[in-house]
Design brief:
The complex is a heterotrimer of chains A (293), B (336) and C (261). By secondary structure, chain A is mainly α. Chain A is built from 14 helices and two strands. In chain A, helix 4 runs parallel beside helix 8, helix 4 packs antiparallel against helix 11 and helix 9 packs across helix 10. In chain B, helix 4 packs across helix 5. Classes of the chains: A mainly alpha (293), B alpha+beta (336), C mainly alpha (261).
């Protein structure tokens, strides 16, 4: 029985743990005109001396190269900026939405949750693609603006386009954790606040909002982490000058065939996200503990 | 003969009606509460007592009638503008705030200055004997402590009336009895009007100066506990408050439909005596302070007889013949 | 007592849902556009669907994606079920936190990192990239999702069900199969659906780990999209959305019927 239960961990060790070591190793290698396109290669047929030669040839040269190149640093900061901005926008849109949902009756609430989840089941790529037709210079949005005699907007191939795409794609991930917290919110606490002299508005600020902060944190992390490494959205909706790490990694790998650089970018990304990911894990564990208790 | 109506009522319900769909929660309720009294609203679950309280607090609107506070209609006042404060059945303590922040919540809202508010919080915590727990959070408190924080929070804002919704329901029996005494002491010390809603007659009778018994949205009787117990206004009250032996009344022409004899007014004996009703013991339950017998007779329902401890001990067992009697003055006429 | 939604509440929910659905609705409408210019309305037509039926590369990609999805979702669900059982029922065994982290980490990691690391593994192992490498990768990436779904349901199943079965003479594995598995079957099915959909939807991991002859539908779509919007993509998208709508409705009906029964 226990051996069977160990299977998924064995699987993940091979297909998830091991590859990370490989990424870490590769980030310490340098490019070479070879297949695969990097050196040194670990030659185990030479035994210990092979291992020693391999370790000696590893270096932090790629990181030094990345650190000194303004472009990488700019991409790194720009990724964080995009993710932070989009997280803020998501909170501004997602919180009122989740709060509004929590106020409906039980039947309507179930339908609304389904309505928020449903887009998640349709293809991500297609949903982003749909925005191209809307945001294009001669696209649907500008056609609508022209009908209203308003000046056209340049949104596709711009940072604004990337932000719209990020907010759109991640809205369900923000709304659902917020809703989960707000839906359980005990109405008698609001009544107690009203009874003690709060207006509806001040009861919201003093009771409902502070109590929903765990949901705010969960939603923000759940969106922020993958957004930092997002590739499809900046690639399709962003301009040539839009810099994001996911895109940089992709370009290094596919266009420049610089595998060590791609690996170093991945490690940098991972190092940045380690803390928020640990926070998510802790919250997950706490939630799991609560549902079991 | 009802309790004297309050000279200057603090709260007055006038023909208050409220329904939720098909359910009638209040139906022409007239009720007056005097300044400074401890008033209990007693009734089975679903009788509308909580709705009545929530209408006073401002969480529900009456469909009909008016509620007056100091003679003024409070219909237009939202909960936060009413001088009442409520202690919720679940206590509704804010989990993200400490004990002192909970107690000071309403003071902050009312804009008290910090030093004065802090002093008030301390005084309230002292009143409910929770000094030193200022920094605890609700989840670190026992049930009894939570109940006290809720009471301190309700009292802190200097309300004209404190509304307590089943305040002791979540406590175990022993703690409940202690807390009843404390509630009464705190009410007496603060002289604030208390209105408690409960389905537990012991709780109502234990704390209240006056009580109202509610039945299906209507007030069945208002009076001092003793009065309600000894002279129930109808059959429902007679059976809801305490245990009752009810006999169909002989036609005496005074309008009464039943004759009530409380079990403790009956005497049970092993030997026959003149006028005693013969029967057979069906159940014996020993409670320490009293023993309760169920006696089957040839006529009508079994009789409930309660013998206080200290009376001549009996060794009646189920199946034994027994004879039940009571003095004439134990009989109370009760309308249907 | 829950207060009903205010006009502001209705507005926020309505606007949010409109934002979520407007692009999808527009996409579907314009798939029936007669004009080649995607954003200029030229009357109703189904010609792009006809053109689609002739597009062999697209059809091949659909077939690859479906096969990858079927196999990887089944693998991920089986492994996810085992992981969920060990996490929910294993008590506090040593390293449980580490195992949990390993299962859940792929959920929040950016796709590019997962894709790159899996590719490096296949290169190191000398595996030729193609159908099987994509399938194994998708299974790995979706285990965490399957685990979350199944574990959530397992947490609410009374452990005494299984104890009762053991008390009545079942060995542990059989007790699980006979007592617990039937109860969590809907969650297992939901986990499979989720893994399948994620596999069908993935572009990034597939792009890293795929090779010649194993172009998945998102890869094919992506290269088409890079060349610009065209009505044929709208048509494929509409078919995919339709398939999801039908699938979700059927699942909803099945769950509804179970609940009624």
């Amino acid at each position: 029985m226990w051996k069977v239960l160990a299977l998924p961990y064995l699987w993940l060790a091979v297909f998830f743990g091991l590859p990370f070591l490989l990424v870490a190793k590769l980030s310490l290698s340098h490019t070479a005109l070879a297949i695969p396109p990097y050196a040194p290669q670990l030659d185990l047929s030479r035994g210990l001396s092979g291992l020693a030669a391999f370790v000696r040839a590893l270096s932090f040269e790629t990181y030094a190269r990345l650190g000194s190149d303004r472009l990488y640093l700019a991409a790194y900061l720009s990724s964080l900026r995009f993710a932070a901005l989009a997280t803020g926008l998501l909170l501004l849109i997602g919180y009122p939405m989740a709060y509004g949902m929590s106020r409906f009756g039980a039947g309507a609430r179930r339908l609304l949750v389904l309505a928020v989840i449903l887009p998640f089941w349709t293809s991500f790529l297609i949903r982003i693609y749909a925005w191209i037709a809307i945001l294009k210079p001669a696209g649907l949005l500008n056609q609508a603006l022209a009908l209203l005699h308003l000046p056209p907007l340049t949104l596709l191939d711009s940072d604004a386009g990337v932000l719209i795409g990020l907010v759109y794609a991640y809205l369900p991930f923000m709304v659902l954790p917020l809703y989960a917290v707000l839906e359980r919110h005990d109405e008698s606490l609001v009544e107690a606040a009203l009874d003690l002299g709060c207006t509806r508005t001040s009861a919201f600020w003093r009771v409902t909002l502070p109590m929903s902060l765990p949901g705010v944190l969960a939603g923000a992390l759940l969106c922020f982490i993958p957004m930092v490494g997002e590739f499809v959205i900046p690639d399709l909706l962003g301009g040539s000058r839009t810099l994001m790490l996911g895109k940089t990694l992709w370009t290094e790998f596919f266009a420049n065939r610089d595998w060590p650089a791609a690996s170093a970018v991945a490690i940098a990304l991972l190092a940045t996200l380690a803390l928020p990911m640990a926070l998510v894990q802790r919250q997950q564990a706490r939630l799991a503990g609560e549902t079991q208790a | 003969m009802s309790a004297p109506p309050p000279a200057a009522p603090l709260v007055r319900f006038e023909a208050v009606g409220k329904r939720f769909g098909d359910v009638v929660a209040a139906d022409g309720v007239d009720l007056e509460l005097a300044e400074g009294e401890f008033f209990a609203l007693l009734g089975p679950s679903g009788c509308g007592k909580t709705t009545l309280m929530r209408m006073l607090a401002g969480f529900e609107r009456p469909d009909a009638g008016r509620i007056l506070l100091n003679g003024a209609d409070i219909a237009g006042l939202p909960p936060h503008r009413r001088p009442s404060s409520m202690m919720f059945q679940t206590y509704a303590l804010f989990p993200h705030l400490t004990v002192e922040q909970n107690v000071g919540f309403g003071l902050k809202q009312q804009g008290w200055d910090k030093a004065r508010a802090a002093a008030r919080v301390e005084a309230m915590l002292a009143l409910v004997r929770l000094e030193g727990l200022n920094r605890r959070r609700p989840h670190q408190l026992s049930g009894g402590q939570k109940q006290r924080v809720a009471l301190a929070r309700a009292l802190a804002v200097e309300p004209r009336i404190v509304l307590l919704d089943e305040p002791l329901a979540a406590l175990d029996r022993k703690l409940r009895e202690e807390t009843q005494l404390e509630l009464k002491a705190i009410q007496r010390a603060t002289r604030v009007t208390f209105m408690i809603v409960t389905h537990d007659q012991d709780e109502a009778m234990g704390v209240a100066d006056r009580m109202a018994v509610m039945q299906a949205g209507r007030i069945a009787q208002v009076g001092a506990p003793r009065e309600v117990y000894e002279r129930p206004a109808n059959r429902f009250v007679a059976e809801f408050i305490g245990e009752a032996n009810l006999f169909p009344a002989k036609d005496t022409g005074d309008g009464a439909d039943f004759t009530l004899v409380r079990p403790e007014r009956m005497t049970i004996a092993a030997e026959a005596s003149p006028g005693a009703i013969p029967g057979r013991v069906a159940e014996v339950a020993y409670f320490g302070d009293r023993t309760r017998y169920v006696v089957k007779t040839d006529a009508g329902k079994p009789l409930l007889v309660s013998q206080a401890a200290g009376q001549a001990p009996l060794s009646l067992q189920p199946g034994d013949p027994a004879f039940v009697s009571w003095p004439k003055n134990a009989e109370v006429k009760v309308p249907a | 007592m829950r207060r009903g939604p205010s006009p502001f509440n209705r507005l926020s929910v309505g606007a949010g849902l409109a934002f979520l659905y407007a692009p999808i609705v527009l996409l579907v409408i314009y798939s029936f556009n007669a004009s080649r210019l995607v954003t200029v309305w030229g009357g109703w037509s189904t010609k792009w669907y006809a053109a689609l039926a002739q597009d062999q590369a697209m059809l091949d990609a659909v077939s690859v994606s479906l096969r990858v999805g079927l196999i990887s979702a089944s693998l991920a669900t089986a492994l996810g079920l085992l992981a969920a059982v060990s996490l929910a029922r294993g008590g506090r065994f040593g390293g449980r936190g580490l195992f949990g982290a390993m299962v859940y980490a792929p959920l929040s990691l950016p796709d590019v990192i997962l894709g790159l690391s899996l590719l490096l593994l296949f290169v190191a192992l000398g595996l030729p990239r193609g159908f099987w490498t994509v399938t194994l990768s998708h299974a790995t990436v979706t285990i965490g999702y399957a685990t979350v779904v199944i574990r959530a349901r397992l947490a609410s199943v009374d452990p005494s069900l299984e104890e009762a079965a053991r008390d009545l003479g079942c060995p542990p594995a059989q007790a699980f199969l006979k007592a617990t598995l039937p109860v969590i079957a809907p969650a297992v099915a939901a986990a499979w659906m989720l893994a399948f959909t994620l596999s069908l939807d993935d572009l990034v991991v597939a792009s890293f780990t795929s090779g010649p002859g194993a172009t998945t539908l998102p890869m094919r779509l992506y290269s088409a999209v890079r060349l610009g919007v065209n009505p044929e993509i709208n048509a494929v998208s509409t078919l995919l959305i339709g398939a999801v709508a039908v699938g979700v409705s059927l699942a909803g009906l099945a769950i509804g019927r179970r609940r009624d029964a």
